[in-house]
Amino acid sequence: MIVVMAAHATQQQIEDVQKRIQDWGYGVHPIFGAERTVVGAVGVPEADKARYMESLEALPYVEQVIGILRPYKFASREFHPEGTVIDVKGVKIGGNQICLMAGPCTVETYEQTLESAKACKAAGATILRGGAYKPSTSPYSFQGHGVAALEILKDIADKLDMRVITEVMDPRNVELVCKYADILQIGTRNMQNYDLLREVGRCRTAVMVKRGMWAKIEEWLQAAEYVLLGGNKDVMLCERGIRTFETYTRNTLDLSAVPAIKELSHLPVVIDPSQGTGKRSLVIAMTKAAVAVGADGLLIEVHPHPDQALKDGAQSLTCENFADLVNDLKPIAAAVGRTL
Ligand code: PEP
Ligand code: MN
What we know:
Layout: E1 2-5, H1 11-23, E2 27-32, E3 37-42, H2 46-57, E4 62-66, E5 86-88, E6 91-93, E7 99-103, H3 110-123, E8 127-129, H4 147-160, E9 163-167, H5 174-178, E10 183-186, H6 194-202, E11 206-210, H7 217-229, E12 235-239, H8 257-264, E13 269-271, H9 273-277, H10 280-292, E14 297-301, H11 319-335
Parallel strand pairs: 7-8, 7-14, 8-9, 9-10, 10-11, 11-12, 12-13, 13-14
Antiparallel strand pairs: 1-3, 1-4, 2-3, 5-6
Helix pairs in contact: 3-4, 3-11, 6-7, 10-11
Bound molecules: phosphoenolpyruvate (PEP) and manganese (II) ion (MN).
């Protein structure tokens, strides 16, 4: 951490700060500037840092205390410089091959899910998505079919040799959803549901932490840190668009988050262009951009009859759209040294 002394701090006060830091067992590195003095402290154990920073900040002759270590440790690139590859029963996320996760927004019926899953699988998807518990802004919107939907997902995925990704919203349901899901999705609205993050950190099913629609990258990484801290190492991130002043698109898909996360973290990054844009035509274009920018996976909504979808029809690709898109992605992936 770096302690910025107030401009009026006396020599004695600067020495007092240095002594406190040394007494805590840290190395002290003062820099005496023309205007003010800055004291660097190194070797601070993470667990005690926040407390020490607060106590220094409370001194009237200290202007500011800045933490130099990132507020996330297990999620940081330094922790695992070569990058994480998650293995979900043989399907890899984070390796050279870009992972395709596709399926309906919501599991509506067995037939609808099967038709979508078959088309997704035929086009190259290895992971079947589908909502059983749907987070809705409105309590009057469809909330999902729950366990019945989980059974449909698992049955179909097993038949087609696909893996399942589905959202878990309630910490009390984590154990139940783990019986059906290969990846637990933490939805945007739950990115700071710390009880839920801790609970999925305790289990050993892979977790996808979606970015809160309001969240800064650092807050998002700290959400992932909660899961990692629990001992669950199979954590991936998913950018799904953030809220800006723009209303033409449902969200503003922040594709710069992909290279930013690659700089800051070792965790694989997935792009969800469906929630990210809200419009079918834009989903197609932004998926191509996501591949170009280095996404490790894509999470795409595909519905056999989008006009009949209970949720998110306007952003759902048809089965044909999806097959065409995957074909179009291949040369883009090759151009950036990846496969599909
Ligand atoms: C979804 O994937 O259908 C979904 C509800 O996602 P998000 O949490 O990003 O809105
Ligand atoms: Mn959706």
